[in-house]
Amino acid sequence: MNEPAANYSFVPAQAGHAVPDRWQPIKVPRAEIAAEIDRLAERAVEPGARRSSEIVHANALDLGRGITPGLSIAIQVLRPGETIMIDRDNANRVEFCLGGEGEALLGQRSFRVEKWSAWMVPSMTPRLYRNSGQQLLIWLSYSNQPLLERAGVYYADAVHDHPQAAPRRPGINQYARDTAPDIAISDDGARLRGYEFLTDIEVVDNPPLLWPWREMLPHLSRRQGDDKRTIMLMYNPATGRRNGTTHSFFATITSFPAGPLRPPPPRGHRHSSFATNYHFEGAGESVVDGQRFEWEAGDLMLSAPSWAEHSHGISERGASVLTVQDHPFQIGMGALIWQEDMAGPVLTLGSEPGQTGYVGPRLAGE
Ligand SMILES: [Fe+2]
C-alpha cells in the first residue's frame, strides 16, 4: 500500500457527544468604547484613511479576528468633513449609528444616516461614507468577515479593477436554468438537475436597506401599557423565511419602557446562534453561564456566546438594545438549535415546529 502524501493524513472520525465551543461572555464598557472613539478621532491620518478599530475577543485566533468566531464588530469614526471609500468585499454587514450625521453611499443607494439609524450592506457593495455634520460621525459595523476568513473564502477588491458583467442577451439560451434537464428520481423529492441550475442561480434582489430611527420609533414600546411590542426585527425581504436583516444576521431593537424592575429569570435559555447586545438607553442585568453582568447605555456585550445559557433583566429606567445574532446563516444550514427550557427539548428551528406564545425574549404572549 502506498504511504499517504505529506500534505494530508487519516485521523479517527469524531463520534459521540459534542457541544458548541463556548467563548466567554464579555462586556466592553461604555467608557472604554468612548475612549477608543476619542483615540480614533484624534489620530492623525492621511486624507481618506479609515479611523476604525475592531473589538477582538481574547479567544479569537489570528485568522478570523472577531468578537465571536462568526462576527466582527468595528467601531468607525469620521471627523466633520471627512469622507472614506471602502472597496467591495464578500462579507455582509449590519451598521448602527451611535452619533453624528452623514451620508452612506452603498453601491447605487445613498442613505442619510443619523443617531440610532441602522442599515444593511449586502456583500460585494462598494461603500462611501461622508460626515456632513458638525460632530463626529460614529457607527458600529457588524460583519461576518471572521467566518469567511476562517473558511478561507474572504475576498475583497476594487470594483473598477474588473470588467462589468455583460447584459444578458434576449431570447432563449439553450444552456440556462429554465431549459436545463430537471428529472424526478423518486416519489419523495429526489431529482437530477443540469449543471445550469448551479451556474445560473435564481437571483433574489438584495439592495442595501435603511431603518431610520425616527421611522422605527413610533412602532416601539416607549411607555407602560402602550400595547406595543418590546422587540422588533429589522426585516430584509431578500432573506425570506430566514427572517434576517442580512443573509447572515438578524438585528432587533428591544425597547422596554421605564417601569417596575424586571430581574433576570432564575434560569435562561440557549441557542447555537450567538447574540451581541449594544445597550443604548437605560440599564439592566444579564446572567450568562452563571456570570452576572450589570450594564447600562453605551455598554456592548457578547451576551450569549453560542450555546451559553443566558437571561436578561431590565432596570426601572427601562432599556433599549440592538441585538445581532447569526440566525439566518444557521437556519440556511439547518444548524440552528434552541433550548428554551434547560430541562426541555433541543429544537432545530426552521426544520421542526419552534416556539409559540412568545412575543419577546422569554416573554409569553397572552
Ligand atoms: Fe437568547
Structural write-up:
This is Gentisate 1 2-dioxygenase-like protein. GO terms for molecular function: dioxygenase activity. It comes from Rhizorhabdus wittichii (strain DSM 6014 / CCUG 31198 / JCM 15750 / NBRC 105917 / EY 4224 / RW1) (Sphingomonas wittichii). The protein has 366 residues and is mainly beta. It has a single domain (26-153, 212-349), classed as Sandwich (Jelly Rolls). The protein has 5 helices and 26 strands. The protein has helices at residues 30-42, 145-151, 196-199, 213-216, 327-333, and strands spanning 26-28, 51-55, 72-78, 83-86, 88-89, 93-99, 101-106, 109-114, 118-121, 127-131, 137-143, 156-157, 182-184, 191-193, 209-211, 231-233, 250-256, 270-271, 275-288, 291-296, 300-304, 310-325, 337-339, 347-348, 358-360, 363-364. Strands 1, 16, 17, 19, 20, 21 and 22 form a 7-stranded antiparallel sheet that branches. A 6-stranded antiparallel sheet has the order 2-3-11-6-9-15. Strands 4-10-7-8 form a 4-stranded antiparallel sheet, with no helix packed on it. Strand 25 and strand 26 (363-364) form a beta hairpin. The radius of gyration is 23 Å and the shape is globular. The N and C termini lie far apart (68 Å). Bound molecules: fe (ii) ion (FE2). Residues 269, 271, 275, 304, 310, 361 line the site of fe (ii) ion.
Shape: globular
Q: What portion of the residues fall into strands of 2 or more residues? A: 35-45%
Briefly, what CATH class?
Mainly Beta
CATH superfamily: Jelly Rolls
| CA gyration radius, whole angstroms | 23 Å
Calculate the mean pLDDT score and round it: 93
User: What would the CATH topology be?
Assistant: Jelly Rolls
| Unique ligands | fe (ii) ion
Organism: Rhizorhabdus wittichii (strain DSM 6014 / CCUG 31198 / JCM 15750 / NBRC 105917 / EY 4224 / RW1) (Sphingomonas wittichii)
Protein name: Gentisate 1 2-dioxygenase-like protein
GO molecular function: dioxygenase activity
